[in-house]
Design goal:
heterodimer; A: 95 residues; alpha+beta; Alpha-Beta Plaits; two-stranded antiparallel ribbon; two-stranded antiparallel sheet; elongated; B: 410 residues; alpha/beta; Rossmann fold; 2 domains; six-stranded mixed beta sheet; 17 strands; 19% strand
Amino acid sequence: MSQQPKSWKEVSPAGVCWRPASDYLTGDWRTFKPVRDPTKCTKCLLCHMVCPDSAIKYDKKTMDVEFDYNYCKGCGICANECAAKAIKMVKEEGE
Amino acid sequence: MATKTEQQMVPLNGDEAVALAVKQSDVDVVAAYPITPQTIIVEKFSEYVANGEVDTEFVCVESEHSALAASLTASLTGARAFTATASAGLALMHEMVYVTAGCRAPVVMAVTNRALSAPINIHGDHSDVMAERDSGWIQLWAENAQETYDSIIQAFRIAEHKDLLTPVMVNLDGFWLSHTLENVNILPDEVVKKFVGTREFPFVTDTEGKQVPFKLDPNNPLTLGPLDLPDYYFEHKRQQEEAMHVAPKIIKEVHDEYAQLTGRSYGNAFVDAYCMEDAEIATVCLGSAAGTTKTVVDYLRSQGVKAGVLRIRTFRPIPWEDIITSLEGAKAIAVMDRSNSVGADGGPLFHEVRHLLYGSRGHPPVVDYIYGLGGRDMPPKTIHAIYKDLYDIASTGKVKHFVNFAGVRD
């Protein structure tokens, strides 16, 4: 991993990315976080498919989904789309 | 000194001279949309493609915005790319003009300068390109069809230099140059191909810390021109300014090497100073108007008047040192603007020249003549009258009007 450039002389031309996007933890943009109720979840994976940040992973054996809070921006699309109403958006604590 | 290459003299108009220079420069991708008075460039080049005379990928796009988008992206993959436009086409490209410079894509573009609407006008003036002067492109301005041909060939070498990577516009006056047949000396194909050479790439660090060539390549994936918020955008813009400081050395090297090859040079590559050494009254202009003005200067010199004309050939980066040293000894200076910066009290060239002379030792009075808008002719008589005004300013030290309109119905 390259070091953060200190001056314009060290910056690569045209803003060439010097770190992968995965290094940029967008999770701290979040105000509300999605929380899943496993008793209602039907493991349909709709939430996994609609997540614009690919922040919903699933276990290929159990089909259980898990939120990656490092990248989840809290947009709420998963909760809105969930057919079983198994996802709730809960306000983050400690603001 | 290298021997001059044997050349052939052929009749070409400015647009045809551009198309031929592009053909000879071994261009990989041309994406363009026809617009008067640039049309001949695109027509002629598509003929070359149809006849199998070039192996260039010619992209027929649906607009000028797309023309430059296609040229820019082709250039980013390492291809040599060219486009051409004018007037409303350049205005439609505006967004991509900045993107191209910001992505450091060395596209070469011919701009056949034409007025902007409304009222609709297809004739030559500099309004179109003056809207792009802050965009980060190098700008070369041709005086005649020969210089158009020569500048296009030089432009590829300049733009693609790995220390520069900055797009270049070659400006030619709509109709006066684009559609006027002139004798043009042309080089053999292989000489141009060798002169332009192949692209070299600087190395940049990718996301894994590897050093890879600065181009889009599936084997070395890179992201160019991504979101760049307040944290680094400013640094990238500072780099573009630095490229403009490196540019003069490269423009000069390429110009001088080409002069050795062909025997043709254009001033010192930046300004073409005609009878300026001891000039007491001088005009400053861009493009084809310099030809007529030189004729007027010859006449005035024959009458014992110390007149001169400074033609700016490289408008970006502005050759500030040459402009100051050429003009600071004069007693009165007129800038000739073929465009107006409406409401700014004078045309863009006037603002720049006058601003530079603030730091000069002589502080000569500088006045502006906005002329030739929408293709209105600039005959010797009108230029002569400007020199007459300058003579009066130099003798009396008094300026009646700083901003004047030459050739308008009063």
